[in-house]
Design goal:
Strand content: 15-25%
Structural class: alpha+beta
Shape: globular
Order of helices and strands: HEEEEHH
Radius of gyration: 16 Å
Number of helices: 3
Number of strands: 4
Distance between the termini: 34 Å
Helix content: 25-40%
Length: about 100
């Protein structure tokens, strides 16, 4: 993610694939695992998995979490393949694993 993209730019919203997974209620069990329920936000079209009010979601639904570049790394309930996650975070673990394999 470049420094020019922040949560107030159209490029930031364009990252969202609108999969709808973050729009479902989630529970956390005693082990810290996230369990997605079947209860979706009332503004989610469950057929298309698209938010009906995406452009105005924070104005219309104050309960909608505003994802920001600073907040995303802290949200352990956000799907791992979420487009808001920075690409570098997806590959750091693999790079570490590759280095360990190469060392004698």
């Amino acid at each position: 993610m470049t420094d020019s993209i922040n949560d107030d730019t159209p490029e930031w919203d364009a990252l969202c694939h609108q999969c709808g997974r973050c729009c479902f209620e989630k529970l956390e069990d005693a082990r810290g695992r996230i369990i997605y329920t079947q209860n979706a936000c009332r503004y989610l079209d469950v057929i298309t998995r698209r938010c009906k009010i995406f452009g105005r979601r924070f104005e219309i639904n104050p309960e909608c979490v505003k994802l920001t570049p600073e907040l995303v790394p802290q949200l352990h309930w956000l799907p791992r393949d979420c487009a808001y996650r920075p690409p570098a975070a997806k590959y750091k673990q693999k790079e570490r694993r590759d280095r360990r394999k190469r060392q004698p």
